[in-house]
Amino acid sequence: MRTRSLFSLRRALVSLLLSGSFAVSATAQDKPVPNPQLASPEINAKVDALLKQMTLDEKIGQLVQFSAGFATGPGSEGKNQRFDEMVAKGQVGSFLNVVGADATNHFQHIAMEKSRLHIPLIFGLDVIHGDHTTFPIPLAVAASFDPKAAEIVARTGAEEARADGIPWVFSPMVDIARDPRWGRIIESNGEDPYLSSAMARAWVRGYQQGDLSKPDSVAVSVKHFAAYGAAIAGRDYNATDMSQITLRQVYLKPYKAAVEEGAATLMSSFNSINGIPASADPLTLTQILRNEWGFDGFVVSDWGAVAELKNHSIGDGPTVARKALEAGVDMDMEGNLYGTVIAAQVQSGKIPVAVVDEAVRRILRVKYALGLFEHPYTAPAPPYEPTQEKRALTRKVADETIVLLKNDAVEGGGELLPIKSKTVALIGPMADDKPDMLGAWSAGDPKYVVTLRQALEEKLGGDHVLYAQGCGLLSGEDARIFAKNGGPQPITDENATISQAVDTARKADVAILALGEPAGFMEGEAGSRVHLGFTGHQQKLLEAVVATGKPVVLVVVAGRPLQLKWAAQHVPAMVEAWSPGFEGGHAITDVLFGDVNPSGKLPSSFPRAVGQEPLYYAQMPTGRPAGNADLSHMPANSEEKYLSRYVDEENSALFPFGWGLSYTKFSYSTPTVSRQSVPVSEIMGSRKPVVTVGVDVRNTGSVAGTEVVQLYLRCPNVSVEQPLRELKGFTRVTLQPGESRHVEFPLGFDELNFYNVDLKQVVEPTTYDIWVGGNSLATAETNLKVE
Ligand code: BGC
Q: What pTM, to 2 d.p., does this model score?
């Protein structure tokens, strides 16, 4: 599938090269073909033939999507009837939140048997980190630095969704998220465009399998296009504002990767970008997505985003519907503006019918490619049960996602982890909590969650786990608001006291504290926070238990980087477990006791203080760097005032991007390049690698372990300033004690280019600095000359 797209891009490159320019841009005639199924002449002939038979109302019906989530529930008769009639008249093209064979078949039978042209409906659903079987949240999956893990999550989700009558998932979310105040960071791959792009491709592969027609493939909806993650001040739905270079070089990268991988649909976002609402933005939706990237699928709006354009103050209902449609939003999710105000504007000539036709074509292509015309129905499936096989998969993925943040030696022994004691105190509101282990955006039943308490009792025996909840995740007013918002009942302070927890800690040799934030209300969509500490009285609990003098292992269960500075100063061992899903308790226990050697790495920088946000490692240079001139985000050990630094906190992250410890140690040789210098023209002429960077990685410890080897580069002294370092390669390597492995990273145009002021991707003569190591502070260095 990718060969053709690469080939045409290469053609574009070569022709531009011949024309004497070292810049890349795709022109209309050189449009790549990222998904050959959607571009296929057979499917397009069928679409055109059908389109010819359609009335204007039937065409517009294809652009309409409703949420009918309760249409099959009790008391839903009126709603059902309304939707039944609309489907029969061809006034609906899609539903979301209609789940299960019975519910989907109900509507599909009406569409196939009663509507004039028998066009199948397409059912969409938020399948974010698994469908029923709940895996760790996507941010955690990114922490594995293992694209195969993302493929596993996507594949399992796709199979279960398909069994539920769902051929279309609103996933993956690939928004770059550099600000953990934004609750939706949980759905993202974190702060880095290279990591996010690799994960984006893997999610798409897992869902679509390179072939939409397979009965267990689902079409993806890559979201939220575009730049939703840059919401100003981390406040959800807020505007974004950035340079065109940053937009293309950072924020658009993962969407582009997903499109190149064949993504069938995208979802347009709620935010505005540089003053233009994303759901009415011809630049991103048409110029970039369709003309430059060659996307042939369709774009659905986010929930009500077309109608909400009125709140963006760019016109009344008819005007904003026209703007959205003309910009390239093909389907209106749950706003019903297209269904009510487009027809009249086509009839009056205000909207050319060709615009409607094009949107319908894009939607029908996906329906044909999915095989919905031939196989519109879903066979009833037995009720869901998590099989041992599925549990094993979720545990394997969760094992890879856990990040060992800190592991200091304690008095009278070595490093605190893995735990050697046979009896432990287990304390904290996350220790025996089921719903919050699932994380936001989960459809899994909390009853299937293995809590940390259950897993520890299984491993050590009930008598050896001394448990005290200590406090709630929330208390007082917060708990009341939480409950009112329909989330699962939060764990509150009721029946739990800090003094009980302190007594419990005193009885064991080691205390495990499981703390975090409630997933349902405080994370995910509309879960923005300005305080990133532990919620409720958890900080007090932590301080009280630490004050006992017992060695403390802090396990953090949360969907975002929390502010952990106090803990990092006072607690010897810290484990980031994210929201780990069904097998969370087992996975955390695997790591705590060394049955699994942790290998996760942070996809997102952890701040010392919220005031540092947005904090990310790929900082731009400044004229007044603080501390090390090459890495101005490193500690500012200077008493000089007029530097780019805070006067009351270090610049650096508490735990930087790519960070994660192991129970063993790895050493790195000085990296080498396969060629000392490469001509610009050779790099520009192909997307093939032109040079490899090699390094020897050795396990110098006494246990086997997996290291995520990371390559960073800097492109200095070129026409547009570039970040101080950027990730451009990573790979997981498992080594036995004493074992060494030679690792190679290919570099070519994709890794070496940047956008110049004309928004062209270029490579300019320079000497790249290259570092390889186990996190973004890597020091083993080499250089590559480009002339
Ligand atoms: C969210 C999307 C989601 C959609 C449908 C919106 O509120 O922003 O991510 O796919 O709802 O549920």
A: 0.95
